[in-house]
Specification:
By secondary structure, this protein is of the alpha/beta class. It is built from eleven helices and 15 strands. The chain has a six-stranded antiparallel sheet with strand order 2-1-4-5-6-7, covered by helices on one side. The chain has a six-stranded mixed sheet with strand order 8-12-13-3-14-15, sandwiched between helices. It has a three-stranded antiparallel sheet with strand order 9-10-11. The mean pLDDT is 93.
């Protein structure tokens, strides 16, 4: 899979841009604030419809404009034109001339794996950040997962609202709450099984990748879920036992919305015991393991984006990472310092220089 070309209209600091890419390595360089990250953000949004940066999606619209457009020519055996239109009233999606009404019918079509400096939050932040990682990465792979997740969130919202209503009226459990609980468990179990399979697949590759980057240590990922290893009957009993607490607190206390993952190096939790460098290497190993998982699951390569990689790691680690990237994988690398890039990598790359929202190929 590759993105052959990209067109932007009123996107961030680009009023209009058209750019053609190499099917292998593309290096985008320029000083901070010039617009290099905006290009890879557009590629990411074209795939997943959401930005990876802070803020709502409509912040990508250029100041003074009311609409932004991203259009990409994507090659995956055949060529298709994908278009994302963003306004303050929402988003519209098209493939060729066909409007796509359901998000779940779209976001598994373009597979993107991204590493950027903010990904350190995956290790350091709350479980919510790591659940978001799971949701984004599995959505890259599974339309079924997107449907289950959307359905689960709807049931959870409804159940929480009903628990609050029962709490205010000082009432106990009733048949409608039992129906919601059973629906939540049924959907939650499916989400747990898909997440568990995903982490198992990541663990097939991650330790070997981590060792090749660092030349030491064994890395694994531990998936933690209250639903893991339990049957529907077990879970119904758990909810029944704790229903009074849930009504008092007015919220659902158990389920996949509390799931978490732990990164473990040599039997020690990375978040607690590892250095910042080891944390970075763990996240990058996870991302590179995703590439192998996507290729195995979908029989195609994703698009790899490495945002500001060279400022995050020492030269030895960078060289080790570059060696791990399949030469048939379309890769985008952004950097502020082109001089820091390995000459051999430069020689085989298409290079773009970004200055004040203008892009020049070198």
């Amino acid at each position: 899979m590759e993105i052959c070309s990209l067109k932007l209209l009123n996107f961030r600091n680009y009023e209009s841009l058209e750019i053609k890419f190499s099917p292998t390595t593309n290096i985008i360089y320029g000083q901070n604030g010039m617009g290099k990250t905006n290009i890879i953000e557009a590629i990411y949004m074209l795939a997943l419809t959401k930005t990876f940066r802070l803020g709502s999606d409509d912040v990508v619209i250029k100041k003074g404009k009311n609409i932004a457009k991203i259009e990409g020519l994507i090659k995956d055996n055949i060529l298709n034109t994908y278009k994302l239109i963003i306004s303050d009233t929402g988003k519209r999606i098209k493939i060729d001339s066909n409007k796509i009404s359901k998000l779940s019918d779209y976001i598994t079509r373009i597979n993107v794996v991204l590493f950027n400096p903010d990904d350190l939050k995956i290790i350091k932040d709350t479980p919510m950040t790591r659940r978001k990682l799971l949701n984004i990465e599995i959505s890259n792979l599974s339309k079924e997962y997107v449907l289950y997740l959307n359905n689960y969130n709807k049931i959870l919202k409804q159940r929480n609202a009903y628990l609050k209503a029962l709490s205010k009226k000082n009432l106990g459990s009733n048949p409608f709450l039992n129906i919601l609980t059973e629906e939540l468990i049924t959907c939650g179990l499916k989400i747990m099984l898909i997440r568990d399979e995903f982490i198992n697949n990541i663990n097939k590759y991650i330790s070997d990748i981590y060792f090749k980057i660092t030349k030491k240590g064994t890395l694994s990922v531990n998936y933690k879920s209250e639903f893991k290893g339990k049957t529907k009957e077990n879970l119904l009993k758990m909810y029944q036992k704790n229903i009074s607490r849930e009504i008092i607190m007015g919220k659902t206390l158990f389920g996949p919305h509390h799931d978490d993952i732990e990164f473990i190096v040599d039997n020690e939790i990375v978040k607690i015991y590892s250095s910042v460098g080891e944390q970075k290497n763990s996240v990058i190993a996870f991302k590179l393991a995703e590439i192998k998982n996507i290729k195995e699951s979908l029989n195609r390569n994703p698009i790899l984006i490495l945002d500001d990689l060279f400022s995050e790691l020492d030269q030895e680690k960078i060289n080790n990472i570059i060696k791990l990237i399949d030469e048939n994988l379309q890769t985008f690398i952004t950097t502020t310092e082109i001089a820091s890039v390995n000459p051999d990598l430069l020689a085989q790359s298409r290079i773009f220089h970004v200055v004040n929202g203008t892009v020049k190929e070198e």
